[in-house]
Amino acid sequence: MIVSDDIAAFAGALADASRSVIKPYFRSRLAVEDKSDTSPVTIADREAETAMRRLIEQRYPAHGIVGEEHGVTRAEAEYVWVLDPIDGTKAFVMGKPTFVTLIGLTYRGRPVLGVVDQPISSERWLGGNGRPSTHNGTPIRTQPCASLADAKLNATSADMFRGANAQAFDRLKSRVKVTTYGGDGYGFALIALGFIDLGVEAGLKYYDYCAIAPLVEAAGGVATDWQGRALTAESDGRVCIAGDARVHRAAMEALAG
User: Fold this and answer.
1) N or C: which terminus of the chain has fewer CB atoms within 10 Å of its end residue's CB?
2) What letter does residue 29 receive in the DSSP assignment?
């Protein structure tokens, strides 16, 4: 399925709507609630998702929606929008401009379009099937990197790795050039932009990676789970996303032991 100009433009309109809600709340000392999984949520998260869902219902009433804050509507639809209004809510409530809005679109269960929007720095990534990835409208490509010894690795937090996952990540970390932490979806977007070579995480939800996979792939990268399988709603939350297929293969070997 090739992403049409109309669909891409609508995805941008969703990002505009989310950005307009989020920006006034940034650094405004919001009340923060803890959800059942202990992750934080604010009125900005909820209102931004509401704004995007309203537009989808108006424009594409047959499309499904999967949202972090307001659940699932028509999950069986041919087209499904997957929304994370603020990926990196912890950063958002701490006043750090590294959170992003993630907007993914799937077609028959496969992610085909991704938008990453940073409202404060006014950065937007968009890419998908048949549509080269862009950063603020300028075409982008991932960075060539032939080996792990030359690779820059990023993960949101070392705390997400436990037990065998922690051992696997430590093996990988010992073989790369440098490892940094933080950024949530922003770090993955920097792979598409060609500044980070490898992003490996565990415990992610569908809305954390659905938009990332088509964006990075359209920029020339690879996005899979830790077994090298395509990312879908059924994936186990362990992702390996790389700008170069050679580094991706090496990372797979390191993670497998």
Assistant:
1) C
2) -
